[in-house]
Amino acid sequence: MEDVLRPLVVIGGSLAITLLTGWAVDRLLQRTDARHAETPLWGLLRRCRLPLQVTVCSALLRGSYDKTHARVVREHGSAIAQLLALVLIAATAWLAVRVSAAVVESSYRRYAASAHDPARVRRVRTQVTLIQRVVTAIVGVVAASAMLLTFPAMRTVGTSMLASAGILGIVAGVAAQSTLGNLFAGLQIAFGDMVRIGDTVVVDGEWGTVEEITLTFLSVRTWDERRITMPVSYFTSKPFENWSRGGTQKTGAVVFHLDHSAPVAEMRVRLGEIVRKSPAWDGRDWTLAVTDTTPSTMVVRALVTARDADDAWTVRCEVREQMITWLREHHPYALPRITTATIQPPRPAADSEDRLTRFSGDLHKDGTHPRRN
User: Fold this and answer.
1) Exposed, middle or buried: residue 244 (CB in 10 Å: 0-12, 13-18, 19+)?
2) Contact assessment for residue 282 and residue 222, using Cβ atoms and an 8 Å cutoff
């Protein structure tokens, strides 16, 4: 009977303590979050309940499994201890990653709530994202190393591994130079403020928004919802356009090819009416001028300002559409056209027709040719 009750008590007690600990910590964090609503840290830490329970349970079982005196423990004690140690290390790493993520996200949210510069907010967001990825990678490497060191065979070969670390480092550096280049490029982007999450960029002729930055690649979401994935080393070795750097305000241009008779002054008045009614115009400036001419048309350029690249695109489309509609309805002659004319057959001169008429009249009067008389 004791062989049955003792394992139940040990395992059941460990599970009960685990559930009680998780409930108590969650209630404490919930009350703290209600009292300190200015910081989201305590609410974010509630996400750590599951890894905390796994860590507590594995620690309790690791320390009390031999108290069960069960036959399976006596026969496979070392294997059970090894398994529980591995679970404990993995759970501890999981808990550390969750806690660090909560701290980093809480810091970012507090900064974003108090900051007034969107560019600085995007910069901090990029930095904390990459920092969190670095922390996760470090914790994962340390946890994997600790798990390997729990095996006796790995301890015996530790000395030889350290002795050959220099040669292995050189070989790994040569084999993974591209990966290492992207890794250092990612750190350079994070702290060099070259490009940030949320920036509007133009790369290889594609216009889009930076959606994700990792230590090795960068994802750009285009205006038609495609994703362009590029290595981060691209942004440290090749030129690209960053429309969000130095401020989000933009000036958009709309070009019209019109006939030389187009009413430029009236178009300027109409442009002012269009931009004042557009919610995408930021109210800073607008202008219209003739910038070039060709033998058949002239080039009229309208400039309008906007708060960001998206509003600049919107106001340009509105100006283009409404201006062409207004020209078609009120000044159709101003639109470019190809002038064509039908070819008329050649007509004889007027004096030749008069002489021919008089000659025919004289011939009909006397029936003889005038020159023969």
Assistant:
1) buried
2) no
Question: pTM higher than 0.85 for the full model?
Answer: no
Q: For residue 312, give every residue at least 6 positions away whose Cβ sits within 8 Å of its Cβ, in sequence order, or none.
A: 250, 251, 252, 280, 304, 305, 306
Residues 6+ apart with CB under 8 A from 360: none
The string over 340-354, giving b where at least 16 C-beta atoms fall within 10 Å of a residue's C-beta and e elsewhere, is: eeeeeeeeeeeeeee
328 band by pLDDT with thresholds 50, 70 and 90:
very high
| Residue 337 CA neighbour count, 13 Å, CB half | 11
Of 179, 216, 174, 218, nearest in space to 195 by CA: 218
The tokens for 42 are 């305590």
> Tokens at residue 235, please?
């942004």
Contact of 326 with 288, CB cutoff 8 Å: no
231 HSE (CA, 13 A, CB side): 13
Mean pLDDT within 166-183: 50
pLDDT of amino acid 177: 47
Nearest CA-CA partner of 314 in 226, 223, 234, 233: 223
